């Protein structure tokens, strides 16, 4: 029943929220009581009535992770195709020339979404923002998964076109962009009214350079009229940076400020190439100050960009300037714990110091910062009154042994291998590494056919008509 109280008894370690420090702290050998409404007891001995008791011996209980930027769509079937590719003339980025080649069949969309959700939840994600094209299976699958999910249906007026692997062009169709905008608002409103109570909506103009100033402002007005967040990819590539400099004379952050879009309700996807980045031609340091002043969130997704040799400079620097940096997984492998580890490594390399960012900083980015981005104080923390969204870690797992600081062991070594259970709204969604409410393994089985279909369509989708042997070269030659 919805009001049944569950107790985790004598949890070895609880990562609880400390109101005094406004951050996370360790609690040892305590109880947690929760029901469908949220946490009703954290730490010490719980002596109230309960319906179900769970042993917390040799367990660490963490708040669920908040993933503020991921893409379902065709991403799960892109695995293994273009990781070694890029367009040299576009700073080595593979996004523009190769992502448009992937075509997913309608029948594979639900499987792709299911695999993404399963992988995210198994790595401890309890809340996610999915930026994708709307489809009939989207809301039903998200609701069935048990996750807390925000849909962000993308829309734009311009499509990318790469000419001869040397120049990025934008092909504009404003009418189509506004039609997609209207459809996106319908989906956002439908998600917010969903009976599950766990779905929300975000207004999502796809990329800052593919939307006109008028559409970006209309999107912000629509979001603020609904009191929902906005998200847009901006400062994500050097090609975009140079396009905006040519078009407006401004960086992406300064352009969004000029349009009145920057604010506490805006999540900027990636935001790597700000004016202070070493790759840009600017020698100023304006952008981070603007982001901090406006309370805008940066959605940091290090794995997918580091694959192309690109890195935020750096997570520690952004945080020290007061920018709210949250984490996302963007594309595969859809593993939040691996994303957190990569965030640590990339930040220390970019910051040229082990002291640039610590384990606690990255953990905060994956929890409290994500909650702030969504305007919520009831997720990303274990505290009285917060939603009962959490995960349990097996401290006796070989990858967690020996234990001195369990959070470091989890992020630096164990990752999802030690995740035992995941709960959302006090209800298990993962047990023993198994996704409970979706046919995860059935969806995985569909991905091979979906990828085979996509590979067959590559040459037809390539403007240059290149054969697959040239587009998707294998790592090793065949004997």
Task: Write up what this structure looks like.
By secondary structure, the protein is α/β, with parallel strands linked by helices. The protein is 33% helix and 24% strand. The strands form 4 sheets. Strands 1, 2, 3, 4, 5, 17, 18, 19 and 20 form a 9-stranded mixed sheet that branches. Helix 2 (109-122) runs parallel beside helix 3 (138-145) and helix 2 (109-122) packs across helix 15. It is globular and about 70 Å long. The mean pLDDT is 96.
Low-confidence stretches: none
Q: Round the mean pLDDT to the nearest integer and report it.
A: 96
Radius of gyration: 22 Å
What's the total helix number? 16
Morphology call = globular
State the end-to-end distance: 60 Å
Beta-strand percent range: 15-25%
Major sheet details: 9 strands, mixed
The total of beta strands comes to: 20
Short structural summary:
This protein is an alpha/beta fold and 479 residues long. It has helices at 95-98, 109-122, 138-145, 174-192, 213-226, 238-248, 252-258, 287-294, 302-306, 315-320, 336-350, 359-365, 368-373, 406-414, 440-461, 468-471; strands spanning 6-18, 23-35, 38-42, 52-55, 59-63, 65-70, 125-132, 148-155, 158-163, 167-172, 199-201, 204-205, 230-234, 266-270, 297-300, 324-327, 390-394, 419-424, 427-431, 434-435. It contains 16 helices and 20 strands.
């Amino acid at each position: 029943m919805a009001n049944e109280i569950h107790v985790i008894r004598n949890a070895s370690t609880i990562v609880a929220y400390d109101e005094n420090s406004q951050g996370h702290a360790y609690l040892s050998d305590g109880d947690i009581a929760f029901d469908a409404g949220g946490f009703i007891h954290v730490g010490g001995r719980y002596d109230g009535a309960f319906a179900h008791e769970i042993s917390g011996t040799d367990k660490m209980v963490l708040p669920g992770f908040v993933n503020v930027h991921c893409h379902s769509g065709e991403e799960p079937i892109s695995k293994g195709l273009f990781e070694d590719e890029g367009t040299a003339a576009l700073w080595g980025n593979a996004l523009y020339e190769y992502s448009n080649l992937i075509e997913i069949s309608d029948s594979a969309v639900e499987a792709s979404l299911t695999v993404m959700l399963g992988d995210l939840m198994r790595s401890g994600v309890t809340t996610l923002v999915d930026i994708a094209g709307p489809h009939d299976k989207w809301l039903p699958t998200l609701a069935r998964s048990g996750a807390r999910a925000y849909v962000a249906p993308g829309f734009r007026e311009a499509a990318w076109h790469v000419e001869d692997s040397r120049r990025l062009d934008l092909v504009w169709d404003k009418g189509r962009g506004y039609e997609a905008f209207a459809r996106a608002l319908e989906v956002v409103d439908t998600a917010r009214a969903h009976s599950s109570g766990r779905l929300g909506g975000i207004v999502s103009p796809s990329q800052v350079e593919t939307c006109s100033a008028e559409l970006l402002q209309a999107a912000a007005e629509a979001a603020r009229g609904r009191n929902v967040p906005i998200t847009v990819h901006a400062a994500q590539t050097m090609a975009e940076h140079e396009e905006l400099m040519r078009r407006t004379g401004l960086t992406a952050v300064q352009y969004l400020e000029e349009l009145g879009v920057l604010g506490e309700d805006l999540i900027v996807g990636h935001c790597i190439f700000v004016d202070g980045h070493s790759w840009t031609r600017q020698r100023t340091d304006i952008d981070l100050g603007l982001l901090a002043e406006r309370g805008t969130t940066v959605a940091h997704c290090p794995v997918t960009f580091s694959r192309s040799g690109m890195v935020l400079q750096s997570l520690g620097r952004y945080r020290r300037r007061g920018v709210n940096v949250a984490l996302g997984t963007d594309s595969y492998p859809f593993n939040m714990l691996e994303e957190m580890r990569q965030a640590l490594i990339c930040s220390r390399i970019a910051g040229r110091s082990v002291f640039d960012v610590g384990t606690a900083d990255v953990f905060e980015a994956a929890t409290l910062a994500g909650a702030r981005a969504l305007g919520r104080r009831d997720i990303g923390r274990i505290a009285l009154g917060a939603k009962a969204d959490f995960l349990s870690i097996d401290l006796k797992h070989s990858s967690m042994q020996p234990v001195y600081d369990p959070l470091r062991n989890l992020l630096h070594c164990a990752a999802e291998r030690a995740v035992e259970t995941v709960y959302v709204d006090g209800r298990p969604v993962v047990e023993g590494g198994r996704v409970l409410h979706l046919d995860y393994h059935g969806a995985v089985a569909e991905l091979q056919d979906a990828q085979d279909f996509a590979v067959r369509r590559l040459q037809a989708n390539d403007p240059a008509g290149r054969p697959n042997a040239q587009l998707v070269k294998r790592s090793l030659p065949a004997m």
